Amino acid sequence: MTRASNRPPVVPPEAALPSYLRAGYTLRSWLLTTDHKRIAILYLVSISFFFLIGAIAAALIRLELLTPAGDLLTNDGYNRAFSIHGIIMVWFFLIPSIPNTFGNFLIPLMIGARDLAFPRLNLLSWYIYVVAGLITLYVVLSGGVDTGWTFYTPLSSVYANGAVVAAILAVFISGFSSILTGLNFIVTVHKLRAPGMTWGRLPLFVWSHYATSIIFVLATPVLAITLLLVAAERLFGIGVFDPALGGDPLLFQHLFWFYSHPAVYIMILPALGVISELITSAAHKRIFGYWFVAYASIAIAVIGFFVWGHHMFVSGQSYYASAIFSFLSIAVAVPSAIKVYNWTATLYKGDIELNAPLLYAMGFIGLFVAGGLTGLMLAMLAIDVHVHDTYFVVAHFHYIMVGGTVTAFFGAMHYWWPKITGRLYPEAWARASALVILVGFNVTFFPLFLLGYEGMPRRYHVYPESFQVLQVISSCGALLLAAGYLLPVAYLGWSLFRGAKAPANPWGATGLEWTTSSPPPKHNFIEQPVVERGPYDYPISDPLSRSND
Amino acid sequence: MTEQAAEEPFHDTDRQEQADRLGMLVFLASEIMLFGGIFAATMALRIQHPQDYMKAASHLRLALGTANTAILLTSSLAAALAVEGARSGRSRWAARALAAACLLGTAFLAVKGYEYAGEYREGLMPGTAAAHFSGPLQRLFMDLYFLATGLHAFHVLTGIVLMLTAALNRTALHDRRAVLIGNVALYWHLVDIVWIFLFPTLYLAGVP
Prior knowledge:
By secondary structure, chain A is mainly α. Chain A has helices at residues 27-31, 36-64, 75-111, 119-141, 155-159, 164-191, 204-236, 249-283, 290-303, 319-331, 333-347, 356-379, 381-387, 391-421, 427-453, 468-498, 543-546.
């Protein structure tokens, strides 16, 4: 995977300073660190742990669905399995996944800063996440909840059994971790850019994280207050949502989706940023339409605040509201489509190196397009009435969340692995795992589109026998997908000890993070970098690509 | 006039000061959205049931609410004076102004507590016998009132603790840029602004 850099790289005096990994060996030096790179590793370890728990819940669901009868889990057990799966995957994996690991690690490196603006706040944010995570573990161990990840009232506030208040508390607390991270990123991007790092020279990864941070800061508190109101209703009978007490259950859905739809963009926007980096690096070419991709991130963040009603087309909201939400939901697809077109235009006539990160990126594009287009279908009022709350919706958002975000997460893991660990991963294994994940994913989730269109409702574990073939195919695909996810764990773990030492810039990429040693020293750069060119200023090496520049 | 060195990761104190200010402003934007949820719930109730809303709102004691508005606005003045005091190098004045703001904040909480006590005796608290209400909607109004003012009171308490910390911090008092005091005062102004909106939403809505 090593490629001669097109430009003489800045060779850092590597012996001069120890890397951030060797800045201290005690547990204390990790748990009390304020180094953004170490905090990113702390996050990586903890979100991986929660991904495992969420995946075990998913495995239970897929095992149960092998047969039409409810034989493995009881009704209640099944409800608890998918609730835990949803709560953990959304709040303890997807939302912190890319921002808190790669965003944390890379934003200061990409803008030429020594750290995030508030390093101690960054550490606090991880501890808040850990506390919230421990409460979630308590919820799991005490038997879980059966509300689904959406906590819809009056089910959650009146009827549900189990540790609902504890689950709500966990999500409430984890929200503060998100808010602090978003605040830190916004201030860092505004105030810690290196000399010469203008807004037009920010890598698109940073733009997308900036957009994500806006949502973190403005949407998360609305979820916090909503969950507080649910807890107040459950504990003290303050009936904001219970009609018997004068409340309005629809109000909960409005408030919940006001957060949770933008939260979908929290989960996907960082992934879009990752793909922009992977594509330009593999194509050795300037991004097509830099400003369009940058502003598309901001547009997604802004429009994303005004589409929440599309979750409520069949909840009895006014027809006019539904029509407007439908229009806005279709509008939010425009900036997403701009990104996809610009990535493909970037690849066009590029000097392409078909490495593992690019394989992940191209898998991402395909799955994201499939997930996005079915999202457009769901935004249509008439189609939504037909497929609302069916497997079609489940398939749609898994294409975006798993096919999109998780694939981008693995792509980012490979692309920046040399920078984070200082080791090269085995390329052949990485390409194989990218393919296994792509195939496994489609076998798992494509049948769900068909099931949903034929009328299989979500959240049921007993189903007609005619659905069994597709359900079994999906469960088999899940096994393949699990193998695809475990494979990188094995060979990346191997490369930690046996992998070849990585040079500063193994990809010949232009980002600022590649000008420092791999892994970087504690303060990232030995001298304050001064930026003199754009983020994707690749020299024209191939005459074929010249006409396009 | 102690000149502080910039802390990691900043190279100069100017930048650090700007970052601290921006961080506080972003945090306050987040706080506004936190109260936004409660305001949205209140607005929905008011638009759907204006009659019940007004009737329930007339249960609140307008005089106490008005007094508290005056107290809180005055305390914001004191906080603003503390910033001016620190900027002009009169650290003792800054400390006194902060103390005054704290005292007024405590007075606000005292009045609020007195008001809550009265409402408790009348049986207006959530969960207690709803004898005074002619329907669930009015009861919901009172519940929202307790939630909104309770959350606000929690912010008042936080603000008092922050201002007290600043008033006891010698470095902050002698800082001619008033970084810490400025940001604490900003937080206190937000607490004030939230109340400025809560007052008409809850109290003045009951005036026929």
